[in-house]
Write a structure and sequence with these properties.
The complex is a heterodimer of chains A (about 130) and B (about 625). Chain A has about 130 residues and is an alpha+beta fold. Chain A has 4 helices and 4 strands, in the order H-H-E-H-E-E-H-E. Chain B is about 40% helix and about 15% strand. The radius of gyration of chain B is 23 Å and the shape is globular. Classes of the chains: A alpha+beta (about 130), B alpha+beta (about 625). The interface between A and B is large, with 37 and 45 residues.
Amino acid sequence: MHSKPKATHVFLNGAHMNSQVAMANPFSSRSLYKVMTTAMHGLQPRRKASKLVRRISIVPDKCTGCRSCEIACSYHFDGVFQPNTSRIKISFDPKSGDVKISIDDGCNLCEGEEGPLCAKYCSAGALIFQAK
Amino acid sequence: MGLYGWVGKILWVDLTKGKTTIDSSENLVKRFVGGRGVGQWLLFSQLRPETAPLHPENIIVFGTGPLTGTLAPASCRLSVDTKNLLTGGVLSSNAGGHVAPELKYAGFDFVAIHGASNKPVYLLIMDEKAEIRDASHLWGLSTWKTEEILRRELGDPKLRVASIGAAGENLAKPTCIIVDRGRAAGRGGCGAVMGSKKLKALAVRGTGEVKVAEPEKFMREVDRLWKKIDENEAVKFRRDFGTHGLLPLANERGLVGVRNFQDDYWSPEKVEKVRQEVLNEKLEIRKLACFNCPIYCSHLYRIEHGPHAGLVSEGFQLNLDWDFAGKLDIDDPVALIKINALCSELGLDIDNASAPIAWAFELFERGIIGTDETDGLKLKWGDADTVIELLKKIARREGFGKVLAEGSKRASEIIGRGSERYVSHVKGQDSIEAIRVDKGWALGCVTSPRGGGHLDGAFQSHRVPSAGDPRSYDSKAESVFWFERFKAIVDMMGVCYFATVWNHSDLLGPDDFVCLFSAATGVSITGDILMRIGQRVHNVEKAFNTLHAGFKRVDDYPPRRFMLESISSGPNKGASLDEAGWSRMLDEYYRLHGWDTKTGWQTAKGLEELGLVEVKEKLDRNAKLIS
């Protein structure tokens, strides 16, 4: 077996997380996150415990328009597959071939995961998670 | 308890009455899983054998699977099931793109449409609601324009559209349904079936969700398979070059028919001229994927110069090489892209549209037809402009195009004069694959229930070590029998065949579908049971063909040309099919299925073992069952 990031929804390792709340309702913690994390559009979160810079860099030219990022995003927040609620949105213009990728303020870089799921499932390399 | 994986609803649309009803899909999916399985079962159980494909009573089912819309890799397929306009038997086709997942987000696993409207309509499906709407203003428009106008009118750029073009409206037989501009549910004339119902399009938008039963387990499986796909050599190749990249190899293996199958080897110079790397360098502007597909085998091209300058179009799959490069000897990649785009806009099926044109070109070459019959056109191999002209005529069913719009078998009955000899068809539908070399490929193509086609039991022998020498008739039936069942599973799940062991032995196999399916639906299952359900679906299709089209053993024989004429050049020179070898292979295939070797029909015992009592009884009532 390969070692791979776990795609689970246990948010217990965050120092600022109320574990009971997270456990009771692990899949509907959107508002909770809004309160507890800094909105990170762009994305340079301030982490109290470390000086890590964590961000998603976007390379629209590489995007294939598959929208795996959208469903992975919705899974992170709600535990279901529902692109309509995703914080990342892909729009493809078939006439020009242009792709636009936007990430809204609700993004929390998949707090609790090893990295943002959108980047993890971006096989084409249009979304790259950087942590340094 | 709610359903997981599935969203639990089927939308019934009666276009004659202008009514829509919503029903539970639970009983259907319990037995036939999804997509093709459910679609074929609905056709079998509801259609009368005497119903013609273009009659209002014909049903067209758009289906998704339990994995569609989830993060399961390549879970994008939309199954289209209806009565086949070219064979009179079954059609199950499927298209990629984004319509299928959108349908699930809108709350439906299936949409089953019957009846016919008396004026053009389209079906709007939005968040658990459906509405039949006027489409007078869309009638006559291209599929591209239709999508554009619907998105604009409804003010939603995320609206997903499956539509027909002028060809389907005009009831031409070589038609398909176009999804997201460049993806097609082809073969069997399903575009004309929609046209006969005056149904221009399905427009779908959903903001709902697809839930899975065991999210963590499901995601572990997704991760495992995602990694498997990411690391696969065949996937890397498809990402870079698409299926078109296989052209040089396919040509060496005798898989490219040339000039209406006069040969199965194209000139290497011409191959070089159109091969993918050339396109990548010059014309490609983006790699594209269907919904949630890590393989992204599609490519977007922009033509900068010449008569087609400004065209932006997706897709250059190996089928385009078979259909228009080899078969019509067109070696200009720009012209091929234009032809592909034109077919998408007109809603023409590239496979079924190229075949009658190639046949006509050969008749012209042989002097069987002349300019008086071709509306003055001189049919010269490689002449893309004439091909484009004929495609437009077929779509309008105008002049010589009206003859070609029948498909080459019917067209040859109209023309006569020995033209029948140059037709290659299986069960009445134009043949698209070159099958003289690889016998596993050949058997699968010819026995495919939809009437010829490499997307059922056909496999490439070099990818399956147990199949042995591709040229030999030995050890092929068993693999065809295996792939038939497996493909049915894939089509029921709503996943693309390219993501599976059909493409490369390290990709997704039955056990992987067991893991995904169980975690998604919460229903435990084994690989054997899945393969058995696959076998059931195949048998339902077989019985439909027996009842509706009267097919027998003789209909499982390849086109005569492949027996009478051997390959005349290249590494496979001399290869052809022979009747004795074929018969032996076919006997073995029937025995594996438990079918009667003399008639090719199903047996009471075989159907009982599969739990298909209704199928057995219906065949029995029609005196088409071997007891």
